[in-house]
Amino acid sequence: MIRILSKCIIATAVFLIFAVLITFISVTAKSGNITEEKTVPQESSPLYTLSEYKGRIALYKQGYAMPVEIYEVYTSSLPQEEQQKVKDGIDAYTDSEILKIIEAYTS
Q1: Which of 5, 38, 89, 107 has minimal CB crowding within 10 Å?
Q2: Is pTM beyond 0.70 here?
């Protein structure tokens, strides 16, 4: 009787250890993605907008009325379709996204 009882206690302890371990791994795996860049839903506000300021391409950061950077690229030097895109404003939701957009227009 004591052997059966001790085997049940050991089996229960092993089961609980595995349950705690699986829970820990699951929580760790979910929180491990914090540093990865995530796709931002379109309903959120953009962090940046590339637009026009006094005839040149300019970078606006959300919350700023004036551009935080003005580039030596005149919108008049762009193809008509690109001029319209810049005048309408090109939104970016991440740092890497705005860097790609700036690179495309300034290089």
Answers
A1: 107
A2: no
38-47 in b/e form (b: 16+ CB < 10 A) is eeeeeeeebb
Does 38 fall in a domain? no
Structure tokens given for 65 = 């009325």
- How many structural domains comprise the chain? 2
Q: What is the mean pLDDT of residues 34-60?
A: 79
Are 14 and 56 part of one and the same domain? no
Q: Are residues 25 and 61 in the same domain?
A: no
* Residue 22 belongs to domain spanning: 1-32
Distances (CA, A) of 25 to 5, 11, 32, 33, 81: 30, 21, 10, 13, 50
